[in-house]
Amino acid sequence: MKQIFLVLKREYLTRVKKKSFLLATILTPLIMPAIILTIVYFATQEKESRSDKILVLDKSGIFIDSFDVTSFDFEYINGDLEAAKDDLLEKGAFGLLYIPTIDMSDASVINFSGFELYSKTNPSVNSIERIEKIIRNKLEDVKLENSGLDAQVIENLKVRVDLDSFNISDTGEAKESNSKLSFAIGYGTGFLIYMFIFIYGSQIMQSVLDEKTSRIVEVIVSSVKPFQLMMGKVLGVGAVGFTQLLIWFVLIGGLSTVGLSIMAGNSDAIMEAASQQVPGEAIEQLTDQQKTVAEIQGMIASVPVVKILLCFLFFFLGAYFLYGAMYAAIGSAVDSIQDAQQFMFPIIIPIIAAIMAMFFVLDDPNGGLAVTLSLIPFTSPIIMMARIPFGVPDWQLALSMVLLVAGFMGTIWMAGRVYRVGILMYGVKVNWKTIAKWFTMKV
Amino acid sequence: MNILEANNVTKKYAAHMALDNVSIAIPKQSIFGLLGPNGAGKTTLIRIINQIIMCDEGDIAIGGEKLHPKHIRSIGYLPEERGLYKKMKVGEQLMYLAQLKGLSTPEARKRIKHWLDKLGLTEWAGKKVEDLSKGMAQKIQFIATVIHEPEILILDEPFSGFDPVNANLIKDEIFELREKGATVIFSTHRMESVEQLCDDIALINKSQKILDGTKKEIKNSYKSDKYVVGYKGSLSGLSTNLNVLNTQELEDGYMESTVQAGKGDSPNNVLKELINLIEVHSFVEVVPSINDIFIDIVEGGQS
Prior knowledge:
The complex is a heterodimer.
Chain A: H1 2-16, H2 19-49, E1 52-58, E2 72-77, H3 81-91, E3 95-99, E4 116-119, H4 125-147, H5 151-157, E5 166-168, E6 174-176, H6 179-213, H7 217-221, H8 226-264, H9 267-275, H10 281-284, H11 288-302, H12 305-333, H13 337-363, H14 368-373, H15 380-387, H16 394-422, H17 432-440
Parallel strand pairs in A: 1-2, 1-3
Antiparallel strand pairs in A: 3-4, 5-6
Chain B: E1 2-13, E2 16-27, E3 31-35, H1 42-49, E4 57-62, E5 65-66, E6 75-78, H2 90-100, H3 105-118, H4 134-146, E7 152-156, H5 164-179, E8 183-188, H6 191-195, E9 200-205, E10 208-214, H7 215-221, E11 226-232, E12 242-249, E13 255-261, H8 267-277, E14 279-285, H9 290-302
Parallel strand pairs in B: 3-8, 3-9, 6-7, 7-8
Antiparallel strand pairs in B: 1-2, 1-4, 4-5, 9-10, 11-13, 11-14, 12-13
């Protein structure tokens, strides 16, 4: 045990003391939102500033002043279609919208066609939708006018409905549920696990490989059992990931709390509002901004935070052990990173499958696919985390956990058998057959 | 008294026999040569002693006790394939390796300082290994091997990576450690390099031990009663119990011949006979090197 701890300590300290670790740990929570905000900013900026010219050839005469939207620079032209096409090329405009003559006399006609958009490059789906919307709105207006109905009556016919959903616990206590937040938490935690398997898994592999190529490994295994060395490594690198995660949580938690209280100004009133199970009268007394903050806090209060955190911790570690051991085995088997590629494939497949299946799971968190994948140890950490915010029966959660523990004990055991032989093998041409031989070999 | 005894150790890898019924006994405080060509099974035996791998049959005893995990601490092992963590600082690295061998932090700190002082590396303690010259890294490697004051020091091809200056330095350190009570095991395929260092020897070839004993005994038993004589004159008229094997002419009329004496003839008798015939300038008994003996046995075994 002491030996494992010594290895763990070395692996941990050499990594944590690196400047790159400090930078990545502190900057990631700051940079990630910054990147997202920048992208969003530029995307909206571009949309507003860009004024692609679109020529409008309106044969119907209905759309005289409909196309005055700022997103495009519309220019009305006359003449026939062929001449207009030449115009399009000559004027260097983005596109040409052709509107045929339209007969609006029959009120029962609801399908209109013959609208054509010519352009040199493919227009975006968004642009097409926007132009369709302009045409549709105008045609609806014309039909409304022709029918002689009062526009106000039509407007009054439209109603808006908000459906608040609640989860009832076994004790009968009703809690507001929030699918969007559940989705975000499920996706976020699942994705974090996915990311950590890749980042820290390959760190373990690199570490094993470094010891092998620097030839220190034989010195080390003359003092430490190979299995202890492997476990120390897996635990040490895992502890680094854990530290990073912890710092992120504290940083993000701290930043968002500060952010929310600045937005709110008066935090006492919000706490009072947020503490209400069903947001009601208390909220009425708050300002709009405070209301938003209260809603966010209410949402957060609606999910089982402690349960999610504990489960995340468990599945995070489980996934890490399960895959980390396999990465260690691969690192021990090869002489260089290039050789490792062929063995990585079977490891990556279930992780990728899990992250792809996650979207279907988030859509139907209690479906057959979701339940199955959340029980199989190779996919369960990612899939179960996606399901938990939506509520998972206790027996499934327990079964999944037991299977995951069995799963990672199995992979650690198997990896250990390959590792103990692999680290002392140099210049051997390794394939799956060799690895199988090492696995069964007596040392 | 033997510090280490291996009895009928056998190790098999799939179709390949790595060690076949090998027994050796290593006297305490001796310098023991484990000799044999590459692939003979030396490293396998050493790994078994170090408990990196286990033997299929047979057993090993250290100080009369069956091999036990605690013995790891009484062995210092310098493997043939050796290296250090390149990105780690010298002091931290030695501390780590010393702690793995069971030293407490303060004790390890004291010994690291002692050794770095002794080998003139004190100011390098805070440097990373990748900043060190190869010779310095080799010294660090040696310190890491002996820092826990092992009873048994196992050095696999010890001088292959060392430059001559370091090799001599290390030799001196090894003798000093032996004086303090350590037993040293050299493993090498370059037999001439350790011949003069060893007291006892075991020869291993093709996974089997083919010879062992003290160096003196072995050499004596392989003496072939040959003498090289430098002289002036002619050897014709030599009695029948002396055979001239070859003769070559040196400058100024000097000659050199190899003479085969009969079994049990004492050098004095041979010399007496020669003096009657020629003017003897030199007279040397041909003593076979371990390498010669090894080749002799291996080839003898084949024919």
